[in-house]
């Protein structure tokens, strides 16, 4: 093939075949990504493009991830369609090297991103701030463009079967986020949680033998320590959180019964507020105030947990707080506060101004 334009982009590449069409995988310096790959959302409407609209909120998160972890990050491949002349020159005519070679792409060709537009935009931002990232590489999978219809189908196919991992599984595997490390520490150091926590699911099925999820433990423990996901958590704070949850477990007879298998976790979920993520988060929220107001005797105060009527049938207490009008557990921020207020009252904890306002609004 001869190019109309004498100037070309050249990539060492591996050639392969998918559904009878050639494709090429190449390593591309990240500093070239913004210059090579176009994203056409501002040019044409959705029905005439091959991608979804860029979500600007996602770009800074990915860019910061690259900048903050420049020596320890992972980026999956970008998939792109080439609309223009290409030429693959193999290293050899026979043998394994026949699919190793040099991919040339006409500089006048249009290269559109089919999958990875947020990575592309984030790389552009990150390289401007951390120039050394520009010399790193990202794999790019090139397809030869067969027109808009094919490119749109590629986007649909690439995303149709993509499944985001559960928050519990992400928490289990995430060694960067302090809150995930906290959740795993608590899971490892609180026997009740160790035995009754599902590490993979965000919600439990009726037949599940578990009572908690790792994601619920993370949320409740962040609330307990008043931490955000990106906040640092000290070793002493992790120890304190584990002590708190162990003391809670001691004062929750139903949890101990589940641990001994004298009652099924299914029964507890059907009958009690404390067997849900909302209950756990509310105990964490009340605990944050307990640790602050009673730093020396908070463990003694937790004995009052035994005397709370956690039954879902007690609608006089829980309706509108932990449950909606249909008796379904509700997980909004206000519901967590209103549920935690019942726990605060039982433990002798005074409400702060914000919690009192929500309580007053509920009572009125």
From TrEMBL:
<dbReference type="InterPro" id="IPR017601">
    <property type="entry name" value="DGQHR-contain_dom"/>
</dbReference>
<protein>
    <submittedName>
        <fullName>DNA sulfur modification protein DndB</fullName>
    </submittedName>
</protein>
<dbReference type="InterPro" id="IPR017642">
    <property type="entry name" value="DNA_S_mod_DndB"/>
</dbReference>
<dbReference type="Pfam" id="PF14072">
    <property type="entry name" value="DndB"/>
</dbReference>
């Amino acid at each position: 093939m001869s190019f109309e334009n004498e100037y070309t982009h050249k990539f060492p590449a591996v050639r392969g075949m998918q559904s009878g069409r050639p494709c090429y995988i190449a390593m591309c310096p990240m500093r070239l990504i913004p210059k090579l790959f176009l994203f056409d959302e501002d040019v044409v409407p959705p029905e005439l493009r091959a991608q979804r609209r860029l979500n600007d909120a996602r770009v800074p998160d990915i860019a910061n991830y690259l900048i903050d972890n420049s020596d320890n990050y992972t980026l999956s491949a970008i998939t792109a369609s080439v609309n223009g002349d290409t030429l693959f020159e193999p290293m050899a005519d026979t043998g394994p090297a026949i699919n190793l070679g040099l991919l040339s792409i006409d500089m006048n060709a249009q290269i559109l991103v089919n999958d990875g537009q947020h990575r592309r935009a984030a790389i552009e931002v990150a390289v401007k701030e951390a120039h050394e990232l520009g010399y790193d590489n990202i794999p790019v999978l090139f397809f030869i463009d067969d027109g808009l219809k094919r490119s749109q189908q590629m986007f649909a196919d690439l995303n149709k079967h993509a499944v985001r991992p559960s928050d519990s599984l992400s928490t289990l595997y995430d060694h960067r986020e302090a809150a995930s490390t906290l959740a795993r520490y608590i899971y490892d150091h609180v026997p009740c949680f160790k035995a009754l926590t599902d590490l993979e699911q965000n919600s439990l099925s009726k037949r599940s033998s578990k009572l908690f999820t790792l994601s619920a433990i993370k949320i409740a423990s962040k609330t307990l320590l008043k931490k955000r996901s990106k906040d640092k958590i000290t070793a002493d704070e992790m120890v304190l959180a584990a002590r708190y949850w162990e003391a809670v477990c001691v004062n929750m007879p139903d949890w101990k019964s589940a641990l001994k298998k004298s009652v099924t976790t299914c029964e507890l979920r059907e009958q009690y507020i404390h067997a849900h993520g909302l209950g756990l988060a509310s105990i964490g929220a009340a605990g944050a105030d307990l640790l602050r107001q009673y730093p020396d005797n908070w463990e003694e105060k937790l004995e009052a947990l035994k005397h709370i009527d956690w039954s879902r049938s007690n609608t006089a207490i829980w309706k509108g707080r932990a449950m909606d009008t249909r008796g379904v557990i509700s997980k909004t921020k206000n519901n967590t506060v209103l549920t935690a207020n019942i726990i605060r009252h039982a433990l002798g904890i005074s409400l702060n101004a914000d919690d009192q306002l929500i309580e007053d609004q509920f009572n009125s």
